[in-house]
Automatic annotation (TrEMBL), chain A:
Record has Phosphoprotein as a keyword: yes
GO biological process: amino acid activation for nonribosomal peptide biosynthetic process; enterobactin biosynthetic process; lipid biosynthetic process; monocarboxylic acid biosynthetic process
Family, per entry: Belongs to the ATP-dependent AMP-binding enzyme family.
UniProt keyword list: Phosphopantetheine, Phosphoprotein
InterPro entries: AA_adenyl_dom (IPR010071), AB_hydrolase_fold (IPR029058), ACP-like_sf (IPR036736), AMP-bd_C (IPR025110), AMP-bd_C_sf (IPR045851), AMP-binding_CS (IPR020845), AMP-dep_synth/lig_dom (IPR000873), CAT-like_dom_sf (IPR023213)
Species the sequence originates in: Streptomyces antioxidans
Domain Carrier: 960-1035
Protein name: Non-ribosomal peptide synthetase
CC cofactor: pantetheine 4'-phosphate
SUPFAM superfamilies: Acetyl-CoA synthetase-like, ACP-like, alpha/beta-Hydrolases, CoA-dependent acyltransferases
SMART domains: PKS_PP, PKS_TE
Molecular function in Gene Ontology: 2,3-dihydroxybenzoate-serine ligase activity; phosphopantetheine binding
UniProtKB/TrEMBL annotation, chain B:
Domain spans labelled Carrier: 1-76
Superkingdom assignment: Bacteria
SUPFAM superfamilies registered for this protein in UniProt: ACP-like (SSF47336)
Protein name: Isochorismatase
Organism: Streptomyces antioxidans
InterPro entries reported for this sequence: ACP-like_sf, PP-bd_ACP
Length: 1299, 77
C-alpha cells in the first residue's frame, strides 16, 4: 500500500468559513449524536473500472474535485448555538493505493473500513482507496459520512472525477468548477423554511398523519438503530425487469411505482395489515440548484397505502402514483420534522415501515476510455428494512439489496423476504394487472407445499369408535383394577362401570339417548364421574354446568341447550326456573337397575358433550363436539404419551373447561387410575403438591399461570420423581415457566398443547426441552388434523409470517348449539381440503417455524384468556351495558385482571360488580369497574383503549387495623393487590383479587407471618380482619396481643430484634417495620406489663428494664442482642442494653427512635391525667378535642375506628394509667453508660419541645451517635414512608453476621 | 418528426398519465407528478427520437414545459 496523499486537517484558517447545518444535515447530525461511535452513518460505494488507471493522475483529479466540492470539505463544530459546519478552505483527500490484493481481499478491506466510525469534529468526513485487483481492473472505494452526501451526490462526484481524470490524462483542460456551493444549499433551505410553502407542507403532513398510524413492520416490532446492517443482494432477471416495465406502461405508471406497489402488497400480507406506511427516499432536487451540489439533500417521505384484498393490482399501482404525486408537492418538508410534529419522536415510535429506495441514476462513468460501474456498499443507517433498487441501465435487469437492521432481522429472514419479494414481482409481472390482489400469495411455490402439505401430514386410519366404547371395553378387560380414588373412596373398574350403568338406565328412562343432551351439575366427586359416564353410556351428550356459576347463567344455559334432564348432587343446586326435570343423586336409589352396559344406537357422529364458552355478542354459546372428534384426540394422546395401569391421572380441572374431558376419560380407557381432587383444590398449590405426592400422581395438567404458581410453591420440587408428565394448555406457556419447570421437576416431561373447545380440546403439541430458548411453540398438528395460517386474503402464510390460525380435520366440533349463523361464520369451507370439508377460524394469531411447528402470537380480536378461561370482553360489555343507567361499556384485561369501564349515570362500581356477579361466572366479573364521564376517542372517533385510565384498586372508607396482625395483613393485601390502600374489612376479591394473587398472598403471609393458610381459608375469610382472627385461632402464641412478649415475626435465622414499646405500652406499631426487615429477621415486640390484667405498674425504669432483660433472655439466652425503642421505649432500650452489657453480654445494635434521655425531661412538669388522655388519643392518630374523661376518649376512639377502641375499656383504662407512669419514671431515671454506638432517628419536624436533641445522649454512650433526620413529627415516625427509611438504615446492620 | 413545444407537452402528459390540455406550459411539473424516473424516461425518448443532447440535470433544474422547450432548443411560437 502506498499513501499518495497524506491526510491533513487542511487548516488554512483565514479562508475557512463557518455555516449552520441544513435541515437535512441536522437530521443526520442528530442521528449520529445519538450514538457518536456508530459507523452506521458511513455511506460507501466502489467503482469497478475496466482498464488501466494512472493512480498519480487519479489523485490529482480527486484533489481537484475535492477542491470543487465544498459541501464535502466540512468539519462539525459544537457551539453554544448548536452544531456548525466549518468549510475548510483546502482538504487533502485521504487516498491509499493498494496493489496485489484480490478483488475479494479488497472488498474485505472495504467492509472493514466501513466499520470505522467517523469523527465529525476532526474530519475529513470522507476517504478514498484504489485497488489494483487484476490486469486492467481497478476498484475505486469512497466512504463518505451521510451528513455530507447522498446517493445522487455520489453520482455527481463520480462523473466529475471521471471527467477531470480523462481531461488530465488527455492533457486537456477539465473545464471550470462544475458544482454549486454549500452556501447555495443553505440559501435554498433558508428560503424554503421562511416560505408559506413550509407552513403549508407542515399542515399537509400533520393532517395526513393526524391519526398517527402504527406502521406495519415485517419484523413485527421496532428496534433502535444498530451500528451496522445486514444485506442480501439479488438481481431481477432482465426479462422480468422488461415485463415489469411493460406492466408499468399498462398501468400508466413507471417501474418504480410498480415496485413500490409490490412492496406494499408484500408488507400488507406479511404483517396482516391493510394499512401500510412505506418510506420513500426522495432525491429532493428537481427544480433546485441542489441538482449541482454533491451534498446531503435527500429526504424520506411516508407513503400511506390501503391494500384491500378485493382491489386489483392496477388499482394499487394507481394509488401509489397518486399518493406519490400528492407527497411530491410537499417533499421539501423533512421526515424528521414530520416525525417530531406527530409526537412520535418522544414515544420512540417510527413513522414508516420498510423503505423502498429506488436509484435510477445513470452511472455510466468513463475514465479515459475505461468504463466503470458503481456498486453500493452502504446506503446509510437502516432503522428497519430498506429495499434498495438500482437500475444500472446496462441491460442486466435490476439489482435489489435488502438491507435489514440486525436487531430485527437474521440473515435467513432477509433472504426469505427477498426471495419472496422477487418471486412475487415475477408473478405480478406475468399476471393480468386487473386480477384481484387476493389471488396473489406472498409464499413461494415451495413454501406453499411446506405449509399446506408437509407440515400437515397427519393422516392416520383409526377404527370408528366413540368416547365411551373403549371405557366399557376396558372395564371388561380389567374389572378389578382401581379406576378412581377420591378422598377415602376407591372404586374398581367393575364397580364404577356398574354404578354408571345403573344411573345410565335411569337416565334412559327420562329420555337420554343418542342426540339428546343431559346436564350435569355436580361438584368434583366420585358422583360426578359416575354421572358423566352414565350420560355417555345412555348415548346422550353431557352438558357440564359448573355448580359455582350464578343462577341466572345456569338458567340461561338450561333454556338454551334444553337438555332432557339435569343430574345434580342435591336439591337446590340448580335454579328451578328453567323447567328442566332434575335427577337428584342424593337419596336416589338405583339398586333395582341392572349394572350391565345399557343398549344404545350410538355412532361416532353423535355428540359426546356440549361445553359453553364466552360469546362476544353477550350470550355464551354451546360447542357441540361429536364422539369421533374426541375419540381421535384421545387415541392420538394415548399413542403419543402412552399410559397404562401404573399411571395415575389427576382430575382437577372443572368439568366446564374442556381440558377436563381428557382428564376424565383418557385414564379410564387405558386402565390407569383417576385421582380426583377436592372441589376448589385446583387453586391450591400446596394441596396439589401434597395430593400428587401422596397419591403418586404420574400425569396432570396445569394452565401455565397456575403452573407458575405451583412451581413457586413449597411443595413442587417434592413431586419430582413422582410426576412423569405434565400437560400445559389454555394460554400461552412462557419460556420462563418452562425453564422453572425443568429446574424444579428435572426428569418430568412438559408438553405444551393447544386447541380451542371447537376442536376437541387440543389440536397441536410440543414437547418442551430443558435447554430450548425463545417462545414455546404450540407445535405440530395431532392426527388427522391440519393447521393453516392464513393472511387476510385467505392465502397461506409462509413460515415466519403471522396470520390467523385455521383448523381442519377430524377434531372439529359440529358447531354451536342452536346458532346456525355463528356456526357458518366460524366453520367455513376448507379450500385446501377435500370437497365439502370445513375449517374452523380460531381468531388466534400464529406463524409456522421453518421446522413445521406453530407459534401462538395473540388474538385477532379482543378475546382474552384469564387463567386459561376464555373471555369475550363483548359478553362482559353487554352485561355492563344492560344495567340501568349505563350508557357505554368497555371491558379489557390489565395486568392479569379484568377491568370494566362504564359511562352514564349507572349504579356505583360496587353495585355494578355485585350485579354482574349474579349473572356471570366469577372469572368474567371485572375486578374493578371504573366510571368515566366519557370514553377517550382516537382522532378517527374510535374508542382508544390505550387511553383508558388505570383502575385504582382500593376499598371504601376504612377503619384502622386492630392489632399487629391485622395491620400486617392489611399491608400485605395492599401490596399483593397493588392497591393504594386496603382496609381491614375489605374483601380480597372485591379489591381486584384473583386466585393467582390469592396464592401469592398466601405465600407472603407464610413468609412474613409464618402462618400456614390454605387458599381455601382466604375464600372463607376474605378480609384482613377475618384472616387475622383465623390465624390467631390457629396460633395460640400469637393470641395474646397484650402479653409482654409480642412475636411480630417469630421465624428467621438471624439474631432477633427486640422492639420496646412507647409510652402507651403497646408494640403493635412496630408491625410495619417487622414486615420490612425481611423474612429472615425475627422481630419481637416488648409490651408493658399489666396491659391485660391488674399487675402492679413498675416503679422505676430500671425495674421495668430488668424485667424486660429477663424476658429477652428467655427468647435468646445470649447475645448478640439487637434493641430498638421509640419514645420512652428508646430510654428503656438503652437501659436494657446497659443491663445486658453489665451481665457480660454483647449488644450489637441499639436503635433509638426519637427518644431523649431523662435529663431532657426532668425539669418539665409530668403530664396530668388530662395529658395522658391526649397521649392516648395521639397514639390513635387523633388530635384531642373536647374529650374530658376516659369515657369521652373511648367514645372518640370507637368513632375513629381505632384499634385501641377494640381493646375494650379495661385495657384502655390501664393505658391511661401507664402513660403518666412512664412520664414519671422517665423523669426520675438516672442513666448509666452504654458502651457502643447508637443509631438515632430524629422526627425533624419543628415541635414545641425545641430543646430535645439527640446530642443529649453523648454522655450516656461511649461510641458514635449516628443521627438520621426524618421529615415528620414524633407521632408520624412509624408511618409507611418513614418506616421504609428506618428499615433501609437498619437492614444492612441486621444482615451483618456477628463478626 | 421535430421536437416542438406541443410535442414536449404531449410526451410529458403521456408520461404523467394526464391529458395534454391539463398540463400548463409554465408550471412546475413536480406538482403534476414529475419525478426523476419520468424525466429520465422522457430524456431517453428525446435522445432516441430527436437526438437531444441535454443532460438530466439540465431538465431537472427547470421542470416546466416552456423551459424545456428553451433548453432543448425548440423555438417557441
Amino acid at each position: 500500500m502506498t499513501v499518495l496523499i497524506e491526510p491533513e486537517n487542511g487548516e488554512t484558517g483565514a479562508l475557512d468559513c463557518v455555516l449552520p447545518l441544513t435541515a437535512a444535515q441536522s437530521g443526520m447530525w442528530f442521528a449520529q449524536a445519538l450514538d457518536p461511535l456508530s459507523p452506521a452513518q458511513n455511506t460507501a460505494e466502489y467503482l469497478e473500472i475496466d482498464g488501466e488507471l494512472d493512480a498519480e493522475v487519479f489523485a490529482r483529479a480527486l484533489r481537484r474535485v475535492t477542491a470543487e466540492a465544498d459541501a464535502l470539505r466540512v468539519r462539525i463544530e459544537d457551539t453554544p448555538d448548536g452544531p456548525r459546519q466549518r468549510v475548510c478552505a483546502t482538504v487533502e483527500p485521504p487516498l491509499t493505493v493498494h496493489h496485489g490484493l484480490t478483488r475479494e481481499q479488497a472488498l474485505e478491506w472495504m467492509r472493514k473500513d466501513l466499520t470505522t466510525p467517523c469523527d465529525l469534529a476532526a474530519g475529513p468526513l470522507f476517504r478514498h482507496a484504489l485497488f489494483r485487483v487484476g490486469e486492467r481492473r481497478w476498484l475505486w472505494y469512497q466512504r463518505i459520512h451521510h451528513l455530507v452526501i447522498d446517493g445522487f451526490g455520489y453520482s455527481l462526484l463520480v462523473r466529475r472525477t471521471a471527467e477531470v481524470y480523462t481531461a488530465l490524462i488527455r492533457g486537456e483542460d477539465p473545464g471550470p468548477r462544475a458544482f454549486e456551493t454549500l452556501a447555495d444549499l443553505l440559501a435554498v433551505d433558508a428560503e424554503y423554511r421562511a416560505s408559506d410553502a413550509f407552513a403549508a407542507d407542515r399542515e399537509h403532513w400533520t393532517r395526513a398523519f393526524e391519526d398517527r398510524p402504527e406502521a406495519p413492520r415485517l419484523a413485527g416490532r421496532a428496534a433502535l438503530p444498530s451500528r451496522t446492517f445486514r444485506r442480501h443482494t439479488t438481481h431481477l432477471a432482465a426479462a422480468t425487469t422488461e415485463r415489469l416495465r411493460e406492466l408499468a406502461t399498462l398501468t400508466r405508471a413507471t417501474w418504480p411505482d410498480v415496485l413500490i406497489a409490490a412492496q406494499a402488497l408484500y408488507t400488507s400480507r406479511a404483517t396482516g395489515r391493510a394499512d401500510v406506511v412505506l418510506g420513500l427516499p426522495m432525491m429532493g432536487r428537481i427544480g433546485s440548484v441542489a441538482l449541482r451540489v454533491p451534498g446531503m439533500v435527500m429526504n424520506v417521505l411516508p407513503l400511506r397505502l390501503t391494500v384491500a384484498p378485493d382491489a386489483t393490482f392496477a388499482q394499487l399501482v394507481r394509488q401509489v402514483v397518486l399518493g406519490i404525486r400528492r407527497s411530491r408537492r410537499h417533499q421539501r418538508y423533512r421526515y424528521e420534522e414530520i416525525h417530531r410534529d406527530l409526537g412520535l419522536l418522544g414515544e420512540g415510535r417510527g413513522l414508516v415501515g420498510p423503505l423502498v429506495n429506488i436509484m435510477p441514476f445513470d452511472y455510466g462513468a468513463d475514465f479515459a476510455g475505461a468504463p466503470a460501474r458503481a456498486h453500493n456498499l452502504s446506503a446509510g443507517p437502516v432503522d428497519d428494512l430498506t429495499v434498495n433498487v438500482y437500475d444500472r441501465a446496462d441491460g442486466r435487469g435490476l439489482r435489489i439489496d435488502h438491507d435489514g437492521n440486525p436487531a430485527l432481522y437474521e440473515d435467513a429472514d432477509l433472504a426469505a423476504h427477498q426471495v419472496r419479494f422477487v418471486d412475487l414481482l415475477a408473478r405480478l409481472a406475468d399476471a393480468d394487472p386487473n386480477t384481484r390482489l387476493a389471488a396473489h400469495s406472498i409464499a413461494t411455490a415451495a413454501e406453499l407445499c411446506l405449509v399446506r402439505d408437509e407440515f400437515n401430514r397427519t393422516g392416520r386410519a383409526l377404527p370408528p369408535t366413540t368416547l365411551i366404547g373403549p371405557i366399557e371395553a376396558r372395564a371388561n378387560r380389567t374389572p378389578e383394577a382401581v379406576a378412581l380414588v377420591h378422598d377415602g373412596t376407591s372404586l374398581t373398574y367393575a364397580e364404577l362401570n356398574a354404578r354408571a350403568n345403573r344411573l345410565a338406565r335411569h337416565l334412559q328412562g327420562l329420555g337420554a339417548r343418542p342426540g339428546a343432551l343431559v346436564a350435569v351439575s355436580v361438584p368434583r366427586s366420585v358422583e360426578l364421574i359416575v354421572a358423566l359416564l352414565a350420560v355417555l353410556k345412555a348415548g346422550a351428550a353431557y352438558l357440564p354446568l359448573d355448580p359455582d356459576y350464578p343462577g341466572q347463567r345456569l338458567t340461561y344455559m338450561l333454556r338454551d341447550a334444553a337438555p332432557v334432564c339435569a343430574v345434580t348432587d342435591r336439591e337446590g343446586r340448580l335454579p328451578g326456573d328453567a323447567g328442566t326435570p332434575l335427577v337428584v343423586l342424593d337419596g336416589l336409589d338405583l339398586a333395582g337397575d341392572p349394572g350391565v352396559n345399557p343398549g344404545r344406537a350410538l355412532t361416532p357422529a353423535h355428540p359426546a358433550y356440549v361445553i359453553y364458552t364466552s360469546g362476544s355478542t353477550g350470550r355464551p354459546k354451546g360447542v357441540v363436539v361429536p364422539h369421533s372428534a374426541i375419540d381421535n384426540r384421545l387415541r392420538w394422546m394415548q399413542h403419543t404419551y402412552p399410559i397404562g395401569d401404573g399411571d395415575r391421572v389427576l382430575q382437577k380441572t372443572p368439568s366446564s373447561f374442556d381440558v377436563s374431558v381428557w382428564e376424565f376419560f383418557w385414564p379410564l380407557r387405558e386402565g390407569a387410575t383417576l385421582v380426583v381432587a377436592e372441589p376448589g383444590g385446583h387453586r391450591d398449590p400446596v394441596y396439589l403438591a401434597r395430593l400428587i405426592r401422596e397419591r403418586a400422581v404420574t400425569t396432570c395438567h396445569f394452565v401455565p399461570s397456575m403452573l407458575q404458581v405451583f412451581l413457586a410453591g413449597p411443595g413442587a420440587s417434592g413431586c419430582a420423581g413422582v410426576l412423569r408428565r405434565v400437560f400445559c394448555s389454555g394460554e400461552a406457556l412462557p419460556r420462563e415457566t418452562a425453564g422453572a419447570f425443568a429446574r424444579t421437576l428435572p426428569g418430568t416431561e412438559l408438553h405444551n398443547l393447544y386447541g380451542p373447545t371447537e376442536a376437541a380440546v387440543d389440536v397441536s403439541h410440543h414437547a418442551c426441552a430443558p435447554d430450548d430458548t425463545g417462545p414455546v411453540p404450540i407445535g405440530r398438528p395431532v392426527w388427522n388434523t391440519r393447521l393453516y395460517v392464513l393472511d387476510p386474503a385467505g392465502q397461506l402464510c409462509p413460515p415466519g409470517v403471522t396470520g390467523e390460525l385455521y383448523l381442519a380435520g377430524a377434531q372439529l366440533a359440529d358447531g354451536y348449539l342452536q346458532r346456525g349463523e355463528l356456526t357458518a361464520q366460524r366453520f367455513v369451507a376448507d379450500p385446501f381440503g377435500p370437497p365439502g370439508s370445513r375449517m374452523y377460524r380460531t381468531g388466534d394469531l400464529a406463524r409456522w417455524t421453518e421446522h413445521g411447528e406453530a407459534e401462538y402470537l395473540g388474538r385477532t380480536d379482543h378475546q382474552v384468556k384469564l387463567r386459561g378461561q376464555r373471555i369475550e370482553p363483548g359478553e362482559v360489555e353487554a352485561a355492563l351495558a344492560a344495567l340501568p343507567g349505563v350508557d357505554g361499556a368497555c371491558a379489557l384485561v390489565r395486568e392479569d385482571r379484568l377491568v370494566g369501564y362504564v359511562t352514564g349515570d349507572g349504579p356505583s362500581p360496587e353495585a355494578i360488580r355485585a350485579a354482574l356477579a349474579r349473572e356471570l361466572p366469577d372469572h368474567m366479573v371485572p375486578s374493578a369497574v371504573v366510571p368515566l364521564p366519557a370514553f377517550p376517542l382516537s382522532p378517527n372517533g374510535k374508542l382508544d383503549r390505550r387511553e383508558l385510565p388505570e383502575p385504582v384498586f382500593a376499598g371504601g372508607a376504612h377503619r384502622r387495623p386492630a392489632g399487629p396482625r391485622e395491620e400486617a395483613l392489611t399491608r400485605l393485601f395492599a401490596d399483593v393487590l397493588g392497591a393504594e390502600r386496603a382496609g381491614p374489612d375489605d374483601a380480597f376479591f372485591d379489591l381486584g383479587g384473583t386466585s393467582l394473587l390469592a396464592v401469592r398472598l398466601v405465600n407472603r403471609i407464610r413468609e412474613e407471618l409464618g402462618a400456614e393458610l390454605t387458599i381455601g381459608s382466604l375464600f372463607e375469610a376474605p378480609s384482613p380482619a377475618a384472616l387475622a382472627a383465623r390465624i390467631d385461632d390457629a396460633s395460640p402464641v400469637a393470641s395474646d396481643a397484650l402479653g409482654v412478649l409480642l412475636p411480630l415475626r417469630a421465624q428467621g435465622t438471624r439474631p432477633p430484634l427486640f422492639a420496646i414499646h412507647p409510652a402507651g405500652g403497646l408494640s403493635w406499631a412496630y408491625a410495619g417495620l417487622a414486615a420490612r426487615l425481611g423474612p429472615d429477621q425475627p422481630v419481637h415486640g416488648i409490651q408493658a406489663r399489666g396491659l391485660a390484667g391488674s399487675a402492679p405498674l413498675p416503679r422505676t425504669l430500671w425495674e421495668q428494664a430488668r424485667d424486660y432483660a429477663d424476658r429477652i433472655r428467655e427468647v435468646r439466652p445470649h447475645g448478640p442482642y439487637r434493641l430498638l425503642g421509640w419514645s420512652v421505649g428508646g430510654i428503656l432500650a438503652h437501659t436494657v442494653a446497659v443491663l445486658l452489657q453489665e451481665a457480660g453480654e454483647w449488644v450489637d445494635l441499639l436503635a433509638l427512635l426519637d427518644a431523649f434521655p431523662a435529663e431532657q425531661w426532668r425539669e418539665r412538669p409530668a403530664p396530668e391525667e388530662g395529658d395522658a388522655l391526649t397521649a392516648v388519643l395521639r397514639m390513635a392518630g387523633v388530635e384531642r378535642g373536647a374529650e374530658r374523661t376516659r369515657e369521652d376518649v373511648l367514645a372518640t376512639l370507637r368513632e375513629a375506628g381505632s384499634p385501641l377502641a377494640g381493646l375494650g375499656g379495661g385495657t384502655l383504662s390501664r393505658i391511661v394509667d401507664i402513660v403518666p407512669n412512664h412520664a414519671r419514671m422517665m423523669r426520675e431515671h438516672t442513666h448509666r453508660r452504654f458502651h457502643g454506638d447508637v443509631v438515632f432517628f430524629t422526627a425533624a419536624a419543628p415541635r414545641p419541645e425545641h430543646w430535645l436533641t439527640a446530642e443529649a445522649w453523648r454522655p450516656h454512650i461511649t461510641g458514635d451517635l449516628e443521627n438520621h433526620r426524618l421529615p415528620c413529627t414524633h407521632p408520624e415516625l412509624l408511618r409507611e414512608e418513614h418506616v421504609d427509611r428506618i428499615a433501609e438504615v437498619l437492614s444492612p446492620r441486621l444482615a451483618r453476621r456477628e463478626a | 418528426m421535430t421536437l416542438t413545444l406541443e410535442r414536449i407537452r404531449g410526451d410529458v402528459a403521456d408520461c404523467l398519465g394526464e391529458d395534454p390540455a391539463d398540463i400548463p406550459v409554465d408550471e412546475n411539473l413536480v406538482d403534476y407528478g414529475l419525478d426523476s424516473v419520468r424525466i429520465m424516461t422522457l430524456l431517453e425518448r428525446w435522445r432516441r427520437d430527436h437526438g437531444a443532447t441535454v443532460s438530466f440535470v439540465d431538465l431537472a433544474e427547470e421542470p416546466a414545459v416552456e423551459s424545456w422547450a428553451r433548453i432543448l432548443g425548440v423555438a417557441t411560437p
